[in-house]
Design goal:
Number of strands: 25
Largest sheet: 8 strands, antiparallel
Strand order of the largest sheet: 3-2-4-1-10-9-11-15
Strand content: 15-25%
Structural class: alpha/beta
Length: 614
């Protein structure tokens, strides 16, 4: 859960690395550091607790010369955030420097072994054992850096993306990965290295995504060389980036999160484009068409995900069971992998992840594959690990999501799940033509409906001022909108640090209603649907106990307007698609409350965008 950047070429490395760290700061922001080899072959390491801006201030008076370097922004796992635990880490002799993303599970035994050989550790991290081990192997076996890395990684248990430089060879970067992303950018007589493509896109659109247990050798004046841990050379597959630089800028918005909320009419059009025909009469997902028999014969679908993706999965469960009549189970990927699940050949496992790098979801995929399941991935990041690990799948195509709290990726995931359910239902003939056509046309119109909700942003901003100092929130929803309530509560927790919980509205009377008083704001999703009257009854229960109700209602609603304290209207839409539209005011409410509280909206404390460790 850290950001890695590397550069080797003719440019000054420092500006490239610092800019790259800023682009990757959403991956980790409790400390940052940089290692450069100067023109006179000095290996200079500068690091600082805090954000990349703190590192820049620290390095102002230092020697930042050199055209080779590696840099890192950290989200702490082993060792508290401080200068000593920040990366890069020197080797014992200070001739090597290393950065690392991941977790070394056997670091305790490796550290004890290295200490027994006279090595003295400077940090509390698991990372430092790797660079010490590499240097020890180089000294005792008299091998070069690449060979030492290969030998060292045979002893390492865990996940890693690493990059090393040596002042003994100022024309080389060695990088390797296992269960943690790493991409190499290939320019004209220069190389770039990063955890994802965002620091690279400004300089080149030619990239190589490393696979597990592969080592990249970046040497000045030579072509990229890739080996595996057993020293077998691998021909790298060069891919063209689809990301453009404008997607990585705020575009006049004060925060990436607000920009990404307002992008949703366009991003969902991109998500739908090419998958629904112009007439709105058909949905074509190649992943379903190419695997038609597997979906037709599936007796069960299991969806694995974490966080926001898990909430999207719950909506997917409703959609698939409702439209396709296939039993669906939704699992937290982190629990699924540890509970010896019953998985049968013929089961379909759908894995959902924005980053495509979520460690628990990747592990769940490997477990399901080993049991003979067919794996379908739903991801945003092209070329990431999950799309490469699955048998088939669909990208959501909403563009890079920089804000840590997911917004457009959530609506993109639900949109793809809606198209997936419609496509399967049509193949299975479990939906009549009129209902299918109506839902497809409704889905096509969702971007316009979101645009209409966004017109209320200023009104929601004003409403948010009333609740800025609340200490707790409850979110309620029923049916399709229960997962939307969970997602709304998560957004508020993530960025405002206000305690919030989501519940099925009918469950309030089974315990949580004890929390209701005049100080408890309740957000109720009460759009017009098949259980509208039931939801009204639940709101009345809240009001009878003096709770303050903010209701998300359908346009033209009068009944809830007469009960709730505040109402936010959303356009009427088909019930299965309501969560997409209803989630927009919840995103805006959380955003504006967090801004009013002075929170760092794009980089909330303790969180990282891509959870690449367990």
């Amino acid at each position: 859960m850290c950001g890695i950047v590397g550069y080797l070429g003719c440019r000054d490395a420092y500006p490239v690395l610092i800019k790259g760290l800023h682009r990757l700061e959403y991956r980790g922001y409790d400390s940052a550091g940089i290692a450069l080899i100067s023109g006179d072959n000095e290996l200079n390491v500068y690091k600082s607790k805090g954000k990349v801006a703190d590192l820049e201030r620290f390095a102002e008076s230092k020697d930042i010369s050199g055209n080779i370097g590696i840099a890192h922004t950290r989200w702490a796992t082993h060792g508290e955030p401080n200068d000593a635990n920040a990366h890069p880490h020197y080797s014992q002799s200070r001739s090597l420097a290393l950065i690392h993303n991941g977790i070394i599970e056997n670091y305790t035994s490796l550290r004890a072994e290295m200490e027994s050989k006279g090595f003295t550790f400077r940090s509390n991290t698991d990372t430092e054992v790797i660079v010490y081990l590499v240097e020890y192997i180089m000294q005792t076996n008299r091998v070069d850096l690449c060979t030492a890395v290969q030998l060292a990684l045979h002893q390492v248990v865990g996940a890693y993306a690493i990059a090393l430089i040596s002042k003994e060879n100022p024309d080389e970067i060695i990088a390797a990965r296992k269960s943690s992303p790493l991409v190499v950018g290939i320019g004209e007589d220069e190389f770039f290295l990063a955890s994802d493509a965002t620091p690279i896109v400004e300089y080149t659109d030619r990239v190589v995504y490393l696979n597990d247990e592969e080592i990249a050798i970046l040497r000045r004046g030579e072509a990229l060389k890739v080996l595996n841990l057993n020293n077998v050379e691998i021909t790298p597959e060069i891919k063209k980036l689809a990301v453009n630089l404008s997607q990585l800028e705020k575009g006049g918005f004060p925060h990436f999160m607000l920009k990404e909320i307002h992008e949703q009419p366009r991003t969902l059009q991109n998500c739908i484009r090419g998958r629904i025909n112009m007439e709105g009469t058909n949905v074509v997902l190649s992943g379903v068409i190419d695997n038609r028999e597997k979906f037709l014969q599936a007796k069960r679908i299991i969806i694995v995900a974490c966080g926001t993706s898990w909430h999207a999965a719950l909506i997917g469960e409703h959609l698939i069971e409702d439209l396709c009549r296939i039993p669906v189970e939704v699992e937290y990927a982190s629990e699924f992998r540890y509970r010896n699940p019953v998985i049968l050949p013929g089961d379909i496992v759908i894995a959902i992840s924005q980053s495509g790098e979520t460690a628990d979801t990747l592990a769940a995929i490997e477990l399901a594959k080993s049991k003979g399941a067919f794996i379908y991935g739903i991801c945003n990041a092209v070329g990431s690990s999950i799309p490469r690990a699955t048998h088939s799948g669909s990208y959501i195509h909403v563009g890079p999501e920089i804000g840590v709290a997911s917004t457009k990726a959530f609506t993109g995931q639900v949109t793809v799940l809606s198209m997936l359910a419609l496509s399967i239902a049509r193949q299975k003939d479990t939906i009549d033509v009129d209902t299918f056509t109506r839902l497809v046309k409704e889905l096509q119109d969702i971007p316009n409906k979101i645009a209409k909700v966004l017109e209320q942003a200023e009104a929601i901003r004003d409403l948010s001022k009333t609740f800025t100092y609340a200490h707790n929130f409850i979110y309620l929803g029923r049916g399709y909108n229960y997962p939307a309530a969970l997602e709304g509560a998560l957004k508020l927790k993530e960025i405002s640090y206000i305690h919030a919980e989501g519940y099925p509205a009918a469950e309030m009377k089974h315990g949580p209603i004890a929390l209701i008083d005049a100080e408890m704001p309740v957000v109720a999703i009460a759009t017009t649907d098949s259980i509208y009257e039931k939801t009204i009854s639940n709101i009345q229960e809240i009001k009878a106990r003096k709770g303050k109700v903010i209701a998300i209602v359908s346009e033209g609603d009068e009944t809830v307007h007469n009960i709730a304290d505040y109402c936010i209207e959303v356009p009427r839409t088909a019930e299965p698609l309501t969560p997409i539209v209803a989630s927009i005011p919840l995103q805006l409410l959380a955003y504006y409350i967090a801004v009013n509280k002075g929170r760092d909206v794009d980089q909330p404390r303790n969180l990282a965008k891509s959870v690449t460790v367990e």
